[in-house]
Amino acid sequence: MVKVIVIVNRSDKITRHKEFRESLNTNANDELLIIVKDRRIVVEESHDPYNILEEILGDLSFDRKLRVMAEREAIKELME
Fold first, then answer.
1. Which domain covers residue 38, as residue numbers?
2. How far apart are CA 49 and CA 34, in angstroms?
3. pLDDT tens sequence across 41-54
């Protein structure tokens, strides 16, 4: 477990400390998902649901209604 104290700067940005970056194995410009729940913050790697769908479905085409349903499911799974 890594615990670090961070400071929010004037631009409301949080600087990732070295230990924090190393524990998540992240680099500059990597996207992170920050979840706030019950006054706790959880930081995870970000996975774009549209990229996940593209990887799973490849060049499969289907109507807009089915695409919207698939996107909602992907986002729901991401948030769990």
1. 31-79
2. 15
3. 888 877 777 766 77
